[in-house]
Amino acid sequence: MSRIRTKNQDKIIEVASQLFAEKGYAATTTAEIAQRAEIPKPNLYYYFNTKDNLYRAVLESVTQPLLAASYPIEQVNDPREALTQYIRSKLRISRDHAAASKTFAAEVMAGAPHLPKDIAEALMDQSKMILTKFEYWIGKGWMEPVPPKHLMFMLWSSTQTYADFNWQICQVSGQYELDDNDFEQAAEFLVNLVLKGCGVKHAD
């Protein structure tokens, strides 16, 4: 039963992610989500109780991986290895959670009116940790004295754009969708760009 429950919840979250990304929170109804997921509307409420709970589940489906992506920066002392792992993890999230990423981006661009406080606080704590680690690496001489905040913003934008602006990227690329090879090329390029551009060295 737990496997069936998880499967059904995952399907609802996937469909809800697509609709929230397409229409936004306010314009998306639970009836639409249930119809597209091909389940009775009462089943949706059985699993999530409210639209707010479902929206939170959609946001968590991308913010939890985003929070986990920074573990190498927190735990790995060597900046070359940590940044490589971080960039690759962020690109995997854009590949695997594109619709939820778009929903999260739209929420942030609207001023985060529906972003749960605990998620917002966790993301802020993550940002502070990343900036502290960048400053530490700079202080150790393992990275050029680049502006830590702007480096963090660049890492966010250069990785999440593959989800949030997927349509535009596919149009320019002449593809219906990006494949694993596209993401591997992006990872190799971004890792090389950041490591060389920031003069990142191995830890002593």
In short:
It contains eleven helices and no strands.
Task: Describe the protein's architecture and organization.
Helices cover 77% and strands 0% of the residues. With 204 residues, it is mainly α. Helix 1 crosses helix 7 (98-109), helix 4 (51-69) runs antiparallel to helix 6 (79-96) and helix 6 (79-96) packs parallel to helix 9 (148-164). The longest helix has 23 residues, at 117-139. The radius of gyration is 19 Å and the shape is elongated.
- Indicate the proportion of strand residues: under 5%
Multimeric organization: single chain
Give the rounded overall mean pLDDT: 95
Ends apart, CA distance between termini: 52 Å
Write the layout of secondary structure elements.
Layout: H1 2-23, H2 30-37, H3 41-48, H4 51-69, H5 71-75, H6 79-96, H7 98-109, H8 117-139, H9 148-164, H10 166-173, H11 180-197
Could you list some keywords that capture this structure?
single chain; mainly alpha; elongated; 204 residues; 0% strand
